[in-house]
C-alpha cells in the first residue's frame, strides 16, 4: 500500500521534471522481462508495465509475463495487436487468460504486420468487439509525427480521424482510456500535436512515448524501423558530432522541455510519460529514479 510523501510547507515544490515523471509507465517484452530478477528492485510500486506482443510470441509467454508482473505488485497492460489476432474467439480466449491472472488493462493497436492474419485490422474493431468487458482501462496508440502506414501521403488525415473516433468511443462508453504514443526526440512537434488534438476535440489524455537511455546507434536503428518522423533529426545531428557519437543518449532535454511546458500550462494534454527502454529496463529505470521519477505516489497506485 502506497503512502503519501508529505512535504513541509517551507520546502520547495517538486521541480517540473520530477513532477512530470511521477506515475510513469514502462514497456517490456517477455524475453526482456526475464532478464530482471525482481521488478521491485527497480520500479516504484504500482507502476504500469506494458507488455509488448511481438508477432510470433506465444500467448502463453505473454500471460506468464503478465502474471509475474501482477504478482510483484504492478499493473500489467499487455498489447492486443489487431492484425495478429485471427478472430473473435481468439481475442476472447486471450482476454479470458489475462483476466485469470489479474489483468484488467490493455493497449489496443493495429500492430506492426502489413496484412491482417484474420478478422481484425484496426484497434477500432477491437474496441467494438465487446470482448473487453470487465477491463478497467483500454489504451490506444498515438502518432505525434504521423504514421505513413496509415497515411501514405504524409498527411495525418486518417490518423486524426481515428483519434476523433476513439475519443467519441470513450465519451459514449464507460471506458477509461488514454493514448500511448510512439516515441519522439523533440518537444516542439509533440507540443504542437497535443494542442492540435485538443483543438480537434480529442479528449483522450496523452501518455507520451519516450525512448530511454541507449546507445545512439541502437536508437537510430529502432527509430527508423518504427517510422519516427522529423524528430529523428535530433539523433542524426548528434551522430554528426564526433564528441557525442560514442556517448549514450539520454532523454533529459526533451523531457525537461515538455515538463516546463506542462508546468506553465497545467491544462496541457500530456498526463503521463511512457518509456520504451531501448537501452535496457534497468538502465531506463535507474535514469528515471535519478531524475526524481521514483518519488511521490505513482498516479495509478493505491492512496490512503
UniProtKB/TrEMBL annotation:
SUPFAM superfamilies: FAD-linked oxidoreductase. Keywords: Oxidoreductase. GO terms for molecular function: oxidoreductase activity. Gene3D superfamilies: 3.20.20.220. InterPro entries: FAD-linked_oxidoreductase-like. This is Methylenetetrahydrofolate reductase. It comes from Tabrizicola piscis.
Amino acid at each position: 500500500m502506497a503512502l503519501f510523501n508529505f512535504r513541509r510547507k517551507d520546502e520547495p515544490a517538486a521541480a517540473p521534471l520530477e513532477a512530470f515523471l511521477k506515475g510513469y509507465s514502462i514497456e517490456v517484452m517477455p524475453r526482456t522481462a526475464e532478464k530482471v530478477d525482481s521488478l521491485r528492485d527497480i520500479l516504484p510500486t504500482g507502476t504500469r508495465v506494458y507488455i509488448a506482443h511481438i508477432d510470433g510470441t506465444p500467448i502463453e509467454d505473454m500471460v506468464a509475463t503478465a502474471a509475474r508482473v501482477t504478482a510483484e505488485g504492478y499493473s500489467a497492460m499487455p498489447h492486443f495487436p489487431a492484425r495478429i489476432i485471427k478472430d473473435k474467439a481468439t481475442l476472447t480466449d486471450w482476454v479470458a487468460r489475462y483476466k485469470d491472472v489479474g489483468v484488467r488493462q490493455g493497449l489496443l493497436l493495429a500492430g506492426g504486420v502489413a496484412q491482417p492474419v484474420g478478422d481484425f485490422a484496426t484497434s477500432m474493431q477491437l474496441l467494438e468487439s465487446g470482448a473487453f468487458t470487465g477491463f478497467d482501462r483500454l489504451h490506444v496508440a498515438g502518432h505525434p509525427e504521423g504514421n505513413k502506414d496509415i497515411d501514405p501521403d504524409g498527411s495525418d488525415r486518417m490518423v486524426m480521424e481515428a483519434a476523433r473516433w476513439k475519443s467519441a468511443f470513450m465519451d459514449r462508453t464507460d471506458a477509461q482510456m488514454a493514448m500511448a504514443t510512439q516515441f519522439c526526440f523533440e518537444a516542439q512537434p509533440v507540443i504542437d500535436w497535443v494542442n492540435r488534438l485538443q483543438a480537434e476535440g480529442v479528449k483522450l489524455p496523452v501518455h507520451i512515448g519516450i525512448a530511454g537511455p541507449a546507445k545512439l546507434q541502437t536508437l537510430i536503428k529502432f527509430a527508423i524501423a518504427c517510422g519516427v518522423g522529423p524528430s529523428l533529426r535530433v539523433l542524426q545531428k548528434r551522430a554528426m558530432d564526433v564528441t557525442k557519437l560514442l556517448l549514450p543518449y539520454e532523454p533529459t532535454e526533451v523531457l525537461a522541455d515538455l515538463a516546463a511546458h506542462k508546468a506553465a500550462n497545467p491544462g496541457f494534454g500530456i498526463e503521463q510519460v511512457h518509456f520504451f527502454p531501448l537501452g535496457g529496463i534497468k538502465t531506463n529505470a535507474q535514469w528515471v529514479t535519478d531524475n526524481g521519477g521514483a518519488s511521490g505516489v505513482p498516479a495509478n497506485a493505491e492512496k490512503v
